[in-house]
Design goal:
The structure holds 2 protein chains of 2 kinds.
Chain A (H helix, E strand, L loop, with lengths): L5 H5 L4 E8 L10 H16 L8 E6 L6 H7 L6 E6 L5 H13 L5 E9 L30 H16 L3 H16 L12 H6 L2 E4 L1 E2 L8 E10 H5 L6 E9 L15 H12 L8 E3 L5 H10 L8 H6 L16 H4 L6 H12 L12 E5 L9 E8 L1
Parallel strand pairs in A: 2-3, 2-4, 9-10
Antiparallel strand pairs in A: 1-7, 1-8, 4-7, 5-6, 8-11, 10-11
Helix pairs in contact in A: 6-10
Chain B lengths: L13 H8 L4 E5 L5 E2 L14 E5 L3 E10 L11 E8 L6 E5 L11 E10 L2 E8 L3
Antiparallel strand pairs in B: 1-2, 1-3, 4-5, 4-7, 5-6, 7-8
Classes of the chains: A alpha/beta, B mainly beta.
The complex binds zinc ion.
Zinc ion binds next to loops of chain B.
């Protein structure tokens, strides 16, 4: 089997993200996820210079917590002929955009709005505090032991990495501090007070080795992006951001996770780069799924930015900060901007490639990597490589 | 002790939990290719065939990782508790979870053995303790 089917290579740069939209990020939106979804969809269309009448596709991912496309479409009076209601957590966030790109490239739809609307603090606490356990077969071997929350699973993976490679709390802390410094420059971010490494080390335990500042925010908010053909985007008002690659999957990893220090991203990355015809050295800015600090460390390795085991020292070297060789999570990420389950990473990548990221702009950014939950707990993940036209 | 989240056996796993209740640690062995697997499920991922039988294995492993939980994720469970991730010796690539049954913390890669505990009627959990205790 070839790494990437020829037909997929032909789709490189054929589709584009033509608009992005947000609602404010808060800890209590005071409105329904349906309302959040509608607001973000309209904001993204406004940004693209399109109207609701231009929309013929809607896509989202959710875990039973949010408004489906079949609800959002009639709520906004949209005549939708293609939709995707993807069940799944953060690992599918970027697959949704990739599927929309396929639909557009196939001519099944012209203009698809992908959205994620979430009341992850005020209604459905995504972090797992104060709600029941997920319904999935593997949970029966975990929940009886008090292993129920994503923070706990990732803490197990993080300690495995620490034990095997010598990764240290200070490495995680450096990442949290860097992302907070980025958020200070982002008017949209929920957390805009700078923190120090001492603040990180003093924050309370959640599940050792994770402290509070290892964990992402639980956020109410929504985000949307407009996917259309590259050709159509040319006529629209925003700078074009092309979808160079969209990949999902995670290899044939064991159901019971044979290596806790490697994610599905290690299997995905070669296909993703081959689709784009690029490599890690071509990435100017990376928005890496940061449900926890460690998630970024392991992706720096699995997406090929440093050798396995060296993600911690690489992160602490300054390479991922402003002016570094690979600025990461320039918006502050889920740790400090807010948690919209993957889609706010896509939108930030678009802002960077348009050169519209304000004080946090990476100078001359031409190629961005944006990733989903890297394929822990279950191996599948997804990611996008975007390029300024 | 009443568990907030007791095991919810399904049609794949019910026989496994019944065996655990008899203090037996069993995994599935593929009839076709001999691959061992856990957790229980119908198909062998190696040869994609269904036929299998239970194989009783030594309930032994090594410590791969652990956490000390502080956040009240589980209703009624507020004291810090330790969850260990162990690698089963008999099943390549297989990691399992359980609570830690020792006064001291685990050590990386140390040998451990399973501890079967009937926490309530008809519910037996599999925890882990150092092999040298
Ligand atoms: Zn087999």
């Amino acid at each position: 089997m070839t790494l990437v089917p020829k037909r997929l290579l032909e789709l490189r740069d054929r589709t584009a993200i033509a608009g992005i939209g947000y609602t404010p990020f808060t800890k209590d939106s005071g409105v329904s996820t349906l309302t959040l979804a509608c607001r973000a969809v309209l904001a993204a269309l406004e940004d693209a210079g399109l109207t609701p009448d231009d929309v013929d596709g809607l896509a989202t991912h959710r875990v039973g917590d949010s408004a489906a496309p079949s609800l959002v479409a009639p709520a906004l009076g949209l005549d939708v002929t293609w939709h995707l209601d993807q069940f799944g957590g953060g690992s599918v966030s970027h697959a949704v955009v990739g599927q929309a790109a396929l639909a557009v490239a196939a001519g099944v739809a012209d203009t698809v709005v992908c959205y994620r609307a979430i009341n992850a603090r005020s209604e459905f606490r995504m972090g797992g505090t104060g709600r029941g356990v997920p319904v999935s077969p593997e949970v029966q071997y975990q929940a009886p032991y008090g292993l129920v929350a994503p923070a706990q699973h990732f803490a197990l993976y993080a300690r495995a990495h620490m034990l095997r490679y010598g990764t240290r709390p200070e490495h995680f802390g450096h990442l949290a501090v860097t992302q907070r410094a980025n958020a200070v420059k982002n008017p949209r971010a929920l957390m805009r007070t700078p923190i120090t490494l001492d603040d990180y080390l003093a924050s309370r335990w959640i599940a050792e080795p994770f402290r509070l500042l290892d964990c992402c925010l639980e956020t109410d908010g929504a985000c949307a992006v407009v996917v259309t053909t590259a050709e159509r985007a040319r006529a629209l008002r925003r700078p074009r951001v092309l979808i160079s690659a969209a990949a999902w999957g995670g290899g044939t990893s064991h159901l019971s996770c044979d290596d806790p220090t490697v994610t599905g991203a290690a299997a995905l990355a070669p296909r993703l780069y081959a689709q784009a015809g690029l490599g890690p050295g071509d990435i100017d800015v990376a928005e890496l799924y940061d449900c926890f600090t460690y998630s970024v460390i392991v992706q720096l390795e699995d997406y090929g930015f440093c050798p396995k085991g060296e993600g911690g020292p690489y992160a602490a070297s300054g390479a991922i900060g402003p002016g570094g060789e690979l600025p990461v999570n320039t918006h502050g990420g889920f740790l400090s901007e807010g948690y919209v389950h993957g889609l706010n990473h896509v939108a930030e990548a678009v802002s960077q490639l348009r050169g519209e990221a304000g004080d946090r702009q990476v100078p001359g950014a031409e190629v961005a990597l944006s990733t989903a939950q890297p394929g822990y707990i279950l191996p599948a993940t997804s990611a996008l490589i975007l390029r300024r036209a | 002790m009443t568990l907030a989240y007791p095991p919810q056996p399904d049609r794949d796993s019910a026989p496994w939990w019944a065996r655990a209740g008899r203090r037996e640690f069993a995994v599935q062995e593929c009839d076709s290719c001999g691959t061992l697997r856990f957790p229980p499920r119908a198909f062998c991922a190696a040869c994609r065939r269904e036929a299998w039988h239970w194989r009783r294995i030594a309930p032994e492993g090594t410590v791969e990782s652990w956490i000390v939980n502080h956040q009240p994720f589980v209703p009624g469970r507020r004291d810090p508790y330790l969850v260990v991730m162990a690698r089963l010796t008999a099943v390549p690539g297989c990691l399992v979870h359980g609570n830690w049954r020792a006064a001291r913390p685990p050590k990386h890669l140390e040998p451990v053995v399973a501890v079967f505990t009937e926490v309530e009627a008809e519910v037996t959990l599999v925890d882990w303790t150092p092999a040298d205790v």
